[in-house]
Amino acid sequence: MRFTIYQESRQGRRRSNEDRIAYCYSRDALLMVVADGMGGHLHGEVAAQICVQLLCDRFQHEATPRLNDPFLFLSRGLTSAHCAIVDYGEEHGLTDAPRTTCVACVVQDNIAYWAHAGDSRLYVLREGRIHAQTRDHSRVQRMIDRGEIDEDDAAVHPARNRIFSCLGGPITPHIDYSRKTPLKNGDVLCLCTDGMWGPLGNDSILQALVHGNVLETVRPLLDQAERLGGPNCDNLSTVAVTWLDSYESQPPAPQSISTLTLPLDRTQTVMEEFGSARSNRRSEEFSEEDIERTINEINNAIQKFSR
Amino acid sequence: MPPQVNCPLPPNYELDQYRIEHQLSLGGFSIVYLATDKDGTKVAIKEYLPNTLALRKEGQVQPIISEEHLPAFRYGMKCFFEEGRSLAGLNHPNVIRVLNFFRANETVYMVMQYEHGRTLQDYIVKRKGDVRESFIRYVFTRLLNGLREVHAHKLLHLDLKPSNIYVRNNGSPVLLDFGAARTTLLSDTPMLKPMYTPGFASPEHYKNRDLLGPWSDIYSVGASMYACLAGGPPQSADLRLEHDRVTPAVARWQGRFSDELLQTIDWCMHLSHLKRPQSVFQLQRKLVDWQKPAEEVPQDGWLARMRTRISNIVKK
After folding, report:
1. Nearest 5°: phi and psi at A14?
2. Res B247: pLDDT
3. Rounded to a whole number, what is the distance in Å from the CA of A306 to chain B's nearest CA?
4. Domain locations in chain B as residue ranges
């Protein structure tokens, strides 16, 4: 396998980052996961972390170096993650159940397999077009399917954030699986949360990523999404890969990852440690909320100490 | 001095519940105004307005902050808040009181008690170095009371100098400008390296910031006392490390001031942080002891503290 890959998660203007992302690969298989946590306080963060971590752990155990059945792997992985999140909520007596969306993709033998629950998306970009994409488990997507509204209405619809499937929570998740999708050299796969696709829309994502190297194209795209997201910008995260495998021999692209020399029993995982995502990048940023909160704290301190 | 980049708010401008009288001073990061509150009480208001990031032209009220400068502007605001936070928790007659904190005109304002007097810097310049020992003793013993309070809150001032020491008309000092103060527990981001006034910052300020401690503020106290005698700042610590040209106070002013004072100044200004007084209390004890040098110093901390307190009351 040969590919270049880039992942980044940003806090936007929210007080915490409840998105979690990771990728791992063995010699013959690649896994990418994006999860967007929901729930009171920091529980969404926990749900997303459980999901990403569980899938990566399983991948590390099962991809030695091949997964027997990628679809079975995804199905078991997502179901186990759902149960683990529910268990966590019950153990800690959480009334506001932690939940998370999830989109996970495996590539093996130049074939992509993916599964998702919720409104985090996967795009396959090929030859200037969106070759395939996930269908959100959201109310507005249903309305679009029924022809009640179009894409433009959906972008501003008040219920656009309402989803009917996710991991965790009282309802058994509805998980959609892709077809087996053979990849061509130069295909781009992009997994992302709604914080990224929401402000950008399909066209911007397509235009930005379809040509060029994800190592260079993703970061400016996130910048753009953050700008468009405005003062209330949601967490935004993505894992994007440019697939560089081909039967024809080609000079290797710089900075691409080749798994040819990876030992059979070894996997490589790239995932941020729990809690590090929050202090990660945007620590220098200081939102309106932070300003208000700090002023209140200072004035409270002044009150307390004045005679 | 470079020309003032940012225009101050106009006189009589109604800012929140205050009315601006005139500009008191200007720094690279802020403008300080004299203002009156609803009851006509005078206050000093510090406006966060870094002149490299925000621009206010003649006749404008809202500064212009370009999109690209916004993150840096916000980051600086965070540091401005640190100053407010440091001061809000302190209530001491020798430390400037913060009265209020509010947002307006896209920026933030800190309201402080207004004091009648002048900075020690002005005093030194006016007297051209002709400062009496009794004055130095009086001012610094009280100033150290304030600094002790600061250190007791796990804070370091880090920018102590004569222009940050305000002397009220009755002679009692107030510690100003906590712009550089940081909780010692928080490690500083290298992005924010405050500008220090050469001559008053300790060697640790320049070389090894991990070593910053009460002894660093004490160096600044020593350098400020030295400046009182010399009429200007001593050589800066980074240059002293290369080639020390500071004549020890003991040698320079022998006979004109008591040996104890001169020795204390040299002790504070030692280049090695370990060889300076390690706490304000240790230094203060030394300062108070001048008056009765012959007497035995009680070793008990509590007794010594009581003594300091009593001698302070007696002086008042």
Report:
1. -85, 165
2. 93
3. 7
4. 14-113, 117-315
Of A285, A298, A307, the CB nearest to B101: A298
Count up the domains in chain A and report the number.
Answer: 1
Does B296 have pLDDT greater than 80?
Answer: no
pTM of the model: 0.51
Q: Identify the band that residue B193 occupies on the pLDDT scale cut at 50, 70 and 90.
A: very low
**Which of B75, B88, B103 faces A302 most closely, judged by CB atoms?**
B88
Residue A151 banded pLDDT, cuts 50, 70, 90:
confident
Burial B48-87 (b: 16+ CB within 10 A, else e): bbbbebbbbeeeeeebebeeebeebbbbbbbbbbbbbbbb
Question: Cβ–Cβ of A301/B88 closer than 8 Å?
Answer: yes
Give the CATH number for residue A110. Answer: 3.60.40.10
* Confidence class for position A278, pLDDT limits 50, 70, 90: very low
Chain B (251-280) residues lying within 8 Å, Cβ to Cβ, of chain A = none
Which of A284, A286, A305 faces B91 most closely, judged by CB atoms? A305
Dist. CA B6–CA B9, nearest whole Å: 9
Radius of gyration over alpha carbons of chain B, in Å?
20
- In whole angstroms, how large is the CA radius of gyration of chain A? 20
Q: Are A221 and A205 in contact (CB under 8 A)?
A: yes
What are the chain B neighbours of A288 within 8 Å (beta carbons)?
A: none
CATH homologous superfamily of B117-315: Transferase(Phosphotransferase) domain 1 (1.10.510.10)
Look over chain B and give the mean of its residue pLDDT values, rounded to a whole number: 83
Residue scoring higher pLDDT (A40 or A148): A148
pLDDT score recorded for residue B187: 37
Contact between A286 and B99 using a beta-carbon 8 Å cutoff? no
* Full residue range of the structural domain in which residue A204 is found: 2-305
Which residues, including other chains, have CB under 8 Å from residue A300's CB and lie 6 or more apart? none
The superfamily (CATH) of domain B14-113 is: Phosphorylase Kinase; domain 1 (3.30.200.20)
